Amino acid sequence: MLILLAVIGTAVYLASCWLWPFRACSRCDGAGRFRSPSGRAWRYCHRCNGKGAQLRAGRRILTYLGNTRDRGTRR
């Protein structure tokens, strides 16, 4: 029963990563920028390049698996 719940939970997480591949940046909290040390100007976040979003870990796994399948087939 516990294994079945783990499989279902993993499937739901991967489906949500497919639908919503991005998460808010952990450094700038999704703003894409933050105040400079002087407090007078804005700076872009270096972790997300000012976009405010990063790929989720599950989406990276799905992309890797898709690329592995594509590299393994010839046309």
Summarize the structure.
The chain has 75 residues and is an alpha+beta fold.
Q: Outline, from the CA principal axes?
A: elongated
Rounded mean pLDDT score: 89
Overall number of strands: 4
Kindly provide the radius of gyration, computed on alpha-carbon positions and rounded to a whole number of angstroms: 18 Å
Element string (H = helix, E = strand) = HEEEEH
Structural class: alpha+beta
Low-confidence stretches: none
Q: How widely separated are the two ends?
A: 43 Å
Biggest sheet overview: 2 strands, antiparallel
Q: Report the sheet-strand fraction.
A: 15-25%
Q: Which strands sit side by side, in order, in the main sheet?
A: 1-4
Number of alpha- plus pi-helical segments: 2
Protein model, in words:
The chain has 75 residues and is an alpha+beta fold. The chain has a domain of 52 residues. 44% of the residues lie in helices and 16% in strands. The chain has 2 helices and 4 strands, in the order αββββα. The strands form 2 sheets. It has a two-stranded antiparallel sheet. Strands 2-3 form a two-stranded antiparallel sheet. The longest helix is centred in the N-terminal third of the chain and has 18 residues.
